Amino acid sequence: MTPTSKTSDLLLRQTRIHFPRLEEAKVRITPIEKGGSDRKFYRVRCSPEQTIILVKYNLEREENRHYVQIAEFLAEHQIRAPKIYFHDPAEGLIWIEDLGKTDLWSYRNESWLVRRAFYESVLGEIVKLHSLPETAMRAIHENLPAGFDAALYRWEQNYFFENCLGRFFGVEKRQLSMLIALPALGEIAESLAQRPRLLVHRDFQSQNIIIRNGQAHLIDFQGMRPGLAEYDLASLLFDPYVTFSRKECEELLADYESKRAAAGTPVDADSRAVFRLCGIQRLMQALGAYGFLGLVKGNKAFLDHIPAAMTSLRSLVHEIPDLEKLGTLLNRLE
């Protein structure tokens, strides 16, 4: 018996313990490939019409333990996400609703008319999260990772320099040290950290949104924490997996702003400027992750997304006057 089949048999036994009505002969379990997560996902097929998702998570990572509480919090506030069927915290197992295989990314080649409708549904869900009162954030606070602060923004920047510029592009350490020390980068981190925070998804990109019956559902939300709405918007609209025209991006920003106003939580007057700074942060974080996952973890597929993310980052960096040295380097890496 192979290690994989042993794992499947063990997970099937666990499933039948908690779902004794399942008929043994009909139950099948198959692994699901899921990005760079340290969690393992399985689709449990109970019958041709009935499936559930089984998640096996790493007990050592604190944020994994809070997935269930966050899912229940989202349900309480009518934000679409998978339902929780059963949680076995001792084994690190969660059985959740199967929302299907069709994520937002699956529609990347459709016409803008089709895509826009899905993105408007996505924005409707994230506006619900961004518009929650501070009392709601306090209620879930114990189950969230630490919020965005200057140290986390600086960590994202350093992650990019180390794993993308250094590890992937081979930029020498001396030059990296000079760029990391650019005052403008520290100022970006400090200015973003000083702004009022609300609840954000943290990894709000096309592969973490499932479309079911035409409606968007959020997944992979265990990293939810206090932060800036513009960070989620940047994650969605500077998504390296998807291409937007400037006009399409503007339409979605306007739609988001309209939805926030209708919810009684209008965006600040300088939101577009903050959006651009958050775009720099998010792209640095993503590029750092691609380098780390591709070269350290051996998942080479992530390296394919570096060119698209670098193109977006170059464009944003060139809008910041005090980042010319970084912009010059990024141009040389084309």
Query: What is the number of helices?
Result: 13
User: What would you call the shape?
Assistant: globular
The helix/strand series, from N terminus to C terminus, equals: HEEEHHEEHHHHHEEEEHHHHH
Strand content: 5-15%
Helix content: 40-55%
Class by alpha and beta content: alpha+beta
Rg, alpha carbons: 21 Å
Q: Write down the overall mean pLDDT.
A: 93
* β-strand number: 9
Widest sheet, order of strands: 1-2-3-5-4
List descriptors.
334 residues; single chain; alpha+beta; two-stranded antiparallel ribbon; five-stranded antiparallel beta sheet
Question: Summed up, what is this model?
Answer:
The protein has helices at 3-18, 62-65, 67-76, 112-130, 134-140, 150-166, 173-180, 183-193, 229-237, 246-262, 271-296, 306-317, 324-332; strands spanning 28-32, 40-47, 50-56, 84-88, 93-97, 198-200, 209-212, 215-218, 225-227.
